[in-house]
Design brief:
heterotrimer, A alpha+beta (about 270), B mainly alpha (about 375), C mainly alpha (about 130), B: mainly alpha, about 0% strand, C: mainly alpha
């Protein structure tokens, strides 16, 4: 967790009120109280969100839970076909996550081991640079955001992203095979997408706005604290900065200058 | 002048009906794609652009090549090309129409296409491509139409057209340069990340476009009383020869950089295209086919005695078109996506509906071309008579 | 005028086709539906804005909300009476107006409007 204990209790309290009975709780608050209470929530005040995937603490079970949590919260359909798959958070082997980094003497501990991948929320994201409509852009808090109302489906961003982090809706997600998606849509408070738009991980912007940590981090924490660390890279006292100070970390394809904000501790 | 398009022989109407049939089939397939989404194409999350964008890229080149008849006439005062500038301009118009349609059928959410104008983002090369292509289309329509109607009336074209003509010359270079920038500025797509991309695009455009124009001149000569002219065709043949040499030379430069530096990412796509990677060899026969056609074209074009015989020139032009089409319309776009960012290989091949939609677009372009050429040729016949 | 006869006949046929929708639908005017309020909506008395404004301009408000939430990250709306609402069709609007079919669809159908919101957003299940 990227927040100290006292702050965490505040968030937990507030998100309990909001998380379940969201708007009802807000209606009880006068506008000023609301602003004040939100200011207290560090999770809504990030300057540069980032993530650490600590592979020393990560295992296949945690990865599976993280992916399941994300898929459930964001209504991600399963088409049962890798060609048209929608991937926000997914696993990929070491040698394919960091192509060019493997060598013939590498230990079995790494070769073939799955890593957890997601959008890197780059500091200088090529996807945002190439988007002709501003349907994807870099928010002030560092999140590379998507506006599914504006996307025209040109897929320039998919060509621009060097991390394969963007997925296109080749078909209507609501027409995904029923037998693979028995409970679809799994979260009725979150939209599905229309066919013909691009989508990706948004660091759970909708949860951050309510003072909740991203769904994958929450799922990982339930099993092991610190396997995923989410926090504000701009705050030198944040947990994510402490972890990055204490351990050597690598990023995917840093040589491209995109400035990925997802770090891997091997 | 539009009335000229409404009076034609049975061959003319039959040809238009033939094209209409393809347009109809293509449109039907597009309606299917519109309701089902792009999953009916061969594209995937790994190869996210395919046949449509390939054709778009190729046709931008054809459009740009109109300048190869405009430039010698207006800048170098090469009078012989006065006879055929209109053919170059109208070819450009129909090529741009096809470009627009190929982009449209490739969009996932076509009804929102105006977002490019409503929320303009000049940092996107696609925004600039939209602008340069549309302006180029308008320039060619205005110039072509006005010059042709002046010719019909036996007067000099209006003065205000002259600056437009001079603007259209660098503009033609710009459309293909900007189109190359769509690809050449993307980090992590090493096959495209090359400073020579725009130069390669222009070289391949200036051989494939004039090659097509030469073939069209042969057809016009056969079907009408208007002869584009022996000298004109011969000069065009020279242009095709030089541009094809440059095109192949530029490609060899790519090979040198990739294989002498031996940086894996730079070699991968080329190895995939010509030899296949990890047993994936779908484009290999096509690439070697393109190579054979390129060699045939070069031999026939470089030897002047061969190039100057019109029958042989036609074969050479056909070879140029096939070679450049495989290179740019098929391999360039797909090759950039293979291997994918995870160094994995997922191949691409267009599906039947995808091909029919593409044929529909081509038929629309040729419909526009046929009507415009019909008008131009009728005016030329009328003036000559 | 050449071919006067043909032109006049053509004109009559053309105008006839043009007017087809009018005589086809003549005498079949459907009654404009009235939006129905749920007990909860009735009890609340006020919406997020004036009823007259909501009647004519709810779509503009929703569009503004959508813009502010997605692009600006501002998720809370302060009404003129100082009350704060979470900007969400599913979670706020349809919480009160939980009878989407009677409150929204009926009138949209009458107007032949099909808002594409529901291509993606999921209306809460209606309690009947």
């Amino acid at each position: 967790m990227d927040i100290d204990r006292r702050k965490f209790l505040k968030i937990a309290g507030l998100s309990a009120v909001m998380g379940i009975g969201g708007k009802a709780a807000f209606e009880l608050l006068a506008p000023k109280e609301l602003e004040a209470s939100l200011r207290e929530v560090p999770l809504t005040q990030g300057k540069k969100w980032g993530m650490v995937v600590n592979m020393a603490k990560m295992d296949d079970e945690i990865m599976k839970r993280c992916m399941e949590a994300c898929n459930r919260v964001h209504n991600i359909p399963n088409f049962g076909d890798p060609r048209v798959e929608i991937k926000w958070i997914w696993e990929e082997t070491y040698e394919h996550s960091f192509p060019g980094q493997e060598h013939e003497y590498i230990g079995e501990k790494y070769l073939g081991r799955n890593f957890l991948l997601m959008c890197n929320h780059c500091t200088d994201p090529p996807c945002c640079r190439v988007c002709p409509t501003g349907a994807t852009w870099k928010r002030e808090d560092g999140i590379v955001m998507m506006d599914w109302h504006r996307c025209i489906g040109c897929r320039f961003c998919m060509a621009g992203c060097p991390y394969g982090s963007r997925s296109f809706n080749w078909g209507d997600p609501r027409k995904a095979p029923k037998e693979l998606n028995p409970d679809f849509p799994t979260n009725r408070d979150y939209p599905t997408r229309s066919k013909g738009v691009v989508e990706k991980c948004t660091f759970c912007d909708e949860r951050i706005a309510r003072g909740q940590i991203p769904a994958c981090v929450e799922a990982a924490n339930e099993i092991r604290e610190g396997a995923l660390v989410f926090g504000d890279l701009d705050d030198p006292d944040s947990d994510i900065r402490k972890v990055l100070r204490a351990h050597y970390s690598i990023r995917r394809k840093p040589e491209l200058g995109t400035g990925p904000n997802v770090y891997y501790i091997i | 002048m539009l009335d000229k398009a409404l009076k034609g022989s049975a061959t003319y109407w039959g040809w238009l009906l033939f094209l209409l049939a393809f347009i109809g089939v293509g449109f039907g397939c597009y309606l299917y794609q519109f309701s089902e989404g792009l999953r009916i194409t061969g594209m995937s999350r790994d190869v996210s652009w395919g046949f449509y964008i390939g054709q778009f890229t190729y046709l931008v080149g054809v459009a740009a090549s109109g300048v190869m008849v405009v430039l010698p006439y207006y800048i170098h005062n090469y009078k012989a090309f006065a006879r055929i500038t209109i053919l170059g301009e109208f070819l450009a118009v129909s090529a741009i129409v096809m470009c627009g349609l190929f982009i449209s059928v490739d969009l996932g959410y076509l009804p929102r296409v105006m977002n490019i104008i409503l929320y303009p983002h000049p940092n996107s090369i696609l925004f600039w491509d939209m602008i340069v292509l549309n302006v180029y289309l308008l320039l060619n329509i205005f110039i072509g139409w006005n010059v042709l109607s002046a010719e019909r009336k036996g007067v000099h074209y209006p003065k205000w057209i002259t600056p437009l003509i001079y603007i259209s010359i660098p503009w033609a270079f710009s459309i293909h340069t900007v189109t190359a920038f769509l690809y050449a500025g993307l980090p992590g797509r090493h096959f495209w990340l090359t400073a020579i991309m725009a130069a390669r695009f222009l070289a391949s455009a200036f051989c494939s476009g004039p090659a097509l124009l030469i073939l069209l001149c042969f057809i016009v000569r056969k079907l009408s009383r208007f002869d584009p002219g022996k000298e004109q065709i011969r000069t065009l043949g020279g242009i095709v020869a030089y541009a094809m040499i440059l095109n192949v030379f530029f490609f060899l430069l790519e090979l040198f950089t990739a294989f002498y530096s031996r940086i894996p990412e730079h070699m991968h796509a080329i190895v995939y295209l010509f030899f296949g990677l990890e047993g994936h060899t779908r484009l290999v026969p096509w690439m070697w086919g393109a190579t054979v056609f390129a060699v045939i074209a070069l031999v026939l074009l470089i030897i002047p005695q061969l190039r100057r015989r019109e029958g042989i020139l036609a074969i050479a032009c056909g070879s140029v078109i096939v070679a450049t089409w495989i290179d740019k319309g098929l391999a360039l776009v797909v090759g950039g996506f293979i291997p994918n960012p995870f160094d994995r290989i997922f191949e691409y091949w267009p599906t039947t509906p995808e091909v029919f939609i593409s044929l529909g677009v081509y038929a629309t372009g040729f419909f526009v071309l046929s009507v415009l050429y019909k008008i131009a040729v009728s005016v030329k016949e009328e003036v000559a008579a | 005028m050449y071919d006067a006869g043909k032109i006049i006949v053509g004109l009559i046929i053309g105008i006839g086709l043009l007017l087809f929708p009018f005589y086809y639908n003549a005498g079949k005017a459907a009654k404009a539906p009235e939006p129905q309020l749920t007990p909860k909506a009735k009890e609340a008395k006020v919406c997020v804005a004036e009823t007259s404004y909501m009647k004519t301009s709810h779509m503009h408000l929703l569009e503004r909300w959508r813009q502010e939430v997605v692009r600006g990250g501002e998720r809370y709306y302060t009404a003129s009476n100082g009350k704060v609402y979470y900007k969400s069709v599913e979670e706020t609007c349809l919480d009160c107006h939980s009878n989407k079919s009677k409150f929204c669809d009926q009138c949209h159908d009458y107007m032949r409007i099909s808002p594409y919101c529901w291509d993606c957003h999921i209306a809460p299940k209606e309690t009947k």
